[in-house]
Amino acid sequence: MDIEKIFSGLTTQAANVDALGAKIKFQLDDSAILIDGTGENNVVSMADEEADCVISTTKETFSQLTSGDLNPMMAVMTGKIKIKGDMGLAMKLQSLI
Length: 97
What we know:
The chain is an alpha+beta fold. The protein has helices spanning 3-15, 59-67, 72-77, 87-91; strands spanning 23-28, 31-36, 43-45, 53-57, 82-85. The mean pLDDT is 92.
């Protein structure tokens, strides 16, 4: 899955949920996608800036998560996903993925 497709999907999903009240960054291989939910709406960009929660993984693993082929908790426990920062915020992500 390419980064543009991932970005498009996250943008669509972020528009359908309430503002997160924080910033979440997905670090996918060498690309970053930031969801800024500090305002009234979630704003998705390709900005590589500080966030309250950073989720690092590969594009392939992210694709498996979105398709339902990979359980998010199992991915974290096996090290396919690394989470830095607010773990509670990371738990809210199921509505986006």
